Amino acid sequence: MASPETIRFAEAISRTTSWSLSFYPQPLLNLRRRSTSGCTPAFPFINVFGFICYLISTTAFYSSPTIRGQYALRNPAAPTPTVRLNDLVFALHAVLLSTLAWSQFSHRIWGFTQGPQSVGTAIWGIATGCLLAIIALTIFVASRPYFGYDPAGWAWIDVVYGIGYIKLLITVVKYVPQVHTNYIHQSTVGWSILPIHLDLVGGVLSVLQLIIDSQLQGDWSGLTGNPVKFGLGNVSVVFNVVFMLQHYVFYRTARLTEKEPSGEDGVVDDERTRLLDRRQMSEP
Length: 284
Hints:
By secondary structure, the chain is mainly alpha-helical. The protein has 13 helices and no strands. The protein is globular and about 60 Å long.
C-alpha cells in the first residue's frame, strides 16, 4: 500500500496537471476557428488579475521567511503552510496562459473575428476596487507598530491573506460573465467545455490535497490557515457544475445544431451556419 506522502505527491501532480491543461483548449479552439465569438473578454481579463494575486500570495507563503515565520507563530500546531512547489508552478503558468487568452481578443495581434470586445463596467470596477483595497491594506499595515512585523497584531501576513481573498473573490466573479453570455445566446457554441472537465478534476483534487495535508499534520488548521486554496477548489466545483448543465442540458439543442460535421463541440462551421441562416430567412 502506498504511503501517505506518495499519495499526496501523486494527488498534487494530478491536480496541477489537470488545472494547467485546462488553460489550453479555449485558446486552441479560438485559434482553430480564427474567432473569439461565443466567449467574453471579461473572463481572461479578470483571470489575469486574479492569478497575479494568487502568484503573489503563493510565492509569499512558499518562500518568504517573514510570512512563513508569522504563519508558524499564528499556527503553532501546524507551523508549515500547506503550499507546495506545484502550487507556485501552477500560479506562474496560469498568469502566462491567461494573458495569452486575453490577448486573443486583440484583432491587431491575432486578426481573429471578434466577439464582444467590452470587458464591462462591473468587471473593471471590481478589478479597480480590489487593487485599491490591496494598496490601502498595505499602507495600513506599514503604519502599524513594528512596521507589520509583529504577528500578534496587523502584520504582513494579513496583506498576503488579503491578496489571497481577492483571488477568491475574483474566482467567484470571473465565471459570471461567461455564464451570462451563454444564457443570452442560449448556446455554448464557440466556448470549450474541455477546460471545465479539467477544472472540475483539479478543484476536487485541490480540496483533497488540503484534507490530506491537514490529516498528516494532525491538525485541521491547515484548512483555515489556507482558506484561499480551500475556497478556490469549492467555488470551482460549483461553477463547473453550472457550466456542464448549460452545455449538456439547457443548451444542448443549439450545440448539436451548430457544431461541425466532425462532431467537436463548440467549433462552428461558418459556411454551414450562413446557409442555415439564409434558409431560415427565406422561409415564410
